[in-house]
Amino acid sequence: MIDCLSSQAIATAAQMQAIENLIFQAGMPVAALMEKVALRITQRLTELYPARNYRRIGILVGSGHNGGDALVVARELHHQGRQVRIYTPFAKSKPLTRVHGCYAKSLGIPFVDLEALQDCDLIVDGIFGFGLERDVTGDVAIAIHTINNWQIPILSIDLPSGLHTDHGKVMGIAIRATHTFCLGLWKRGLLTESATPYVGKLERIGFDIPEQFIHQVLGDQHPLWRIEPQILRDRLPIVRNPIAHKYEIGHLLLVVGSQQYGGAALLAAMGAKATGVGMLSIAVPHSLKPLILVQVPDALVIGCPETAGAIAELPNLDFAKYQAIACGCGLSLEAMPVVKQIIDSDRPLILDADGLNALASLDRATGLDQLQNRKNSVILTPHWGEFCRLFPDLRTVERIEALQRAVTLTQSTILLKGSKTAIAFPHNTSSQVWINPESTPALARGGSGDVLAGMLGGLLAQGMAANDVAIAGTLWHSQAAIWLAKQRTEMGVDPVTLAQSLLPFLGQELPV
Ligand SMILES: NC(=O)C1=CN([C@@H]2O[C@H](COP(=O)(O)OP(=O)(O)OC[C@H]3O[C@@H](n4cnc5c(N)ncnc54)[C@H](OP(=O)(O)O)[C@@H]3O)[C@@H](O)[C@H]2O)[C@@H](O)CC1
Ligand SMILES: Nc1ncnc2c1ncn2[C@@H]1O[C@H](COP(=O)(O)OP(=O)(O)O)[C@@H](O)[C@H]1O
Ligand SMILES: [K+]
């Protein structure tokens, strides 16, 4: 079972409510829980937004308990000596929220019109939390639109108001937060691609939920997990046996490149090299061999017969020599027969890019269905476009749901790339999904994925289990890119620099 359940589990609104109810049934008063949560929010807010720079604070208050949290925060900030003003577009509210409102008034905290918040240094958003179920309209929608156009930092409590807790879609309009403090367990919607532009920096504020309540509601087969960036420390760098020789550190075969996409082969090789893999062999079209040899002198380059600039067939290779094969970067569709040959091999396998496109164009019995019969693991690494080509029936299904179904169908590990890369692997009768919570749009440029495919291949060849490879590789790739973007801006994370920075990143800085 996973340690620190509450730091990794992802919940829906219904699950969160069920857990909350168990806490209340066990005797915790609702008001006491709200007080505890809001004090923790205030404490963290005070660290991030100290009084010397953030004196004037605007508080947005909704009618439910999200608004109640915000009112307790308002009271505490008032006692810190800050200038607090409250805006609420609602005439009625839940009883607990109402009494906190009364007390705030009795303390002399002003309830103001929206315009009076325009000179605030910070806005705290407590309009809606996980209780939002219908579209935001009217005065509330106008208020959100207006606030979003001010250049004032916004801290959202639990969720940016207007986002749906479960699917992360915007319900008409939503707050664009600078920071979101998610309360209790991670909410599913916050880790979706559609929520990403609204969430800002995401943090979790725990409130000591007893683990047995989480188990009781989520169950042992819980399908959805957040990857903690900190676990990279446990996985990398790989520690070597002091008396190792090169063939004990894994032999990776890359099957990559075409005349049209020669660079992809080089980028995959650079990614693989960064893993320290003991031996690297690279199969490319014969005409590419001199180029690859100059750039990667430490690799064994296998020149293959070619057709239309792509690999026509692999020469007689003994696949047993390789601990893993990574196939597809820049391969071109002309190389389809080669992909078939590789799927039929018994080696642990990464299929990327044209490897996936070839798989999609093979008929199902010799392509996708074959994956289930493989002796060894396979990791598919599609972005959403490639995913839809592979699984056309799933193109209208929600991303995470689609991923789970595809894993059940193929019994393979699938790494679905994007701004919130999601990794799923077969688990008993269903699949488990892990979501990478942090990345950077600096990676949105041609070739980033080729570097990743090489990295995954290098890790797989060194004997890491496929699920760990997918998680560790994704984390390393995205955290190195974040690190690089801090030094060179988001414009400076080109794939060559990224590949060259993977090891300096591991050596110098890991997320704490
Ligand atoms: N996690 C936990 O365990 C803890 C949770 N806590 C906090 O509680 C929050 C959840 O509170 P909640 O259930 O009261 O829901 P919340 O989101 O505040 O309000 C929904 C209200 O808005 C209304 N409404 C809905 N849609 C609307 C619309 N489109 N336009 C207009 N109105 C609309 C709806 O009223 P209705 O109109 O439907 O009667 C309802 O009253 C949670 O996010 C966290 O901050 C902590 O205090 C303690 C620990
Ligand atoms: N907006 C984004 N935010 C974070 N990561 C991104 C974003 N866009 C792309 N990426 C990452 O960059 C990589 C791009 O891979 P891919 O689409 O295969 O590119 P290519 O085929 O050009 O190499 C993936 O790891 C993906 O997760
Ligand atoms: K909120």
Describe this structure in words.
With 512 residues, the chain is α/β, with parallel strands linked by helices. β13 (306-307) and β14 (310-311) form a beta hairpin. It has 2 domains: 5-222, YjeF N-terminal domain (Rossmann fold), CATH 3.40.50; 230-508, UDP-N-acetylmuramoyl-L-alanine:D-glutamate ligase (3-Layer(aba) Sandwich), CATH 3.40.1190.20. It has a 10-stranded mixed sheet with strand order 9-20-19-18-17-16-15-10-11-12, sandwiched between helices. It has a 6-stranded parallel sheet with strand order 3-2-4-5-6-8, covered by helices on one side. The protein has helices at 5-8, 13-25, 30-48, 65-79, 95-106, 138-149, 196-199, 211-218, 232-235, 262-273, 289-295, 336-344, 353-361, 368-373, 384-390, 399-410, 448-461, 466-488, 495-508, and strands at 10-11, 56-61, 83-87, 122-126, 154-157, 179-183, 186-187, 201-205, 224-226, 251-255, 279-285, 300-304, 306-307, 310-311, 324-327, 349-351, 378-380, 413-416, 422-427, 430-435. The chain contains 19 helices and 20 strands. Bound molecules: ligand NPW, adenosine-5'-diphosphate and potassium ion.
Q: Gap between N and C termini, in Å?
A: 23 Å
Mean pLDDT: 95
Ligand names: ligand NPW, adenosine-5'-diphosphate, potassium ion
Largest sheet: 10 strands, mixed
The counted number of beta strands is 20
In the CATH hierarchy, what is the architecture of the largest domain at level 2? Answer: 3-Layer(aba) Sandwich
Shape: elongated
CATH 4th-level superfamily of the largest domain: Ribokinase
CATH class of the largest domain: Alpha Beta
- Radius of gyration computed on alpha carbons: 26 Å
Q: Kindly name the structural category.
A: alpha/beta
Number of domains: 2
Q: Assign a percent range to the helix content.
A: 25-40%
> Would you give the CATH topology of the largest domain?
UDP-N-acetylmuramoyl-L-alanine:D-glutamate ligase
What is the helix tally?
Answer: 19
Q: What proportion strand?
A: 15-25%
What are the low-pLDDT stretches, counting only 5+ consecutive residues below 50? Answer: none
Neighbour order of strands in the largest sheet: 9-20-19-18-17-16-15-10-11-12
Organism: Pseudanabaena yagii GIHE-NHR1
Family: Belongs to the NnrD/CARKD family.
Pfam family, one: YjeF_N
Protein name: Bifunctional NAD(P)H-hydrate repair enzyme
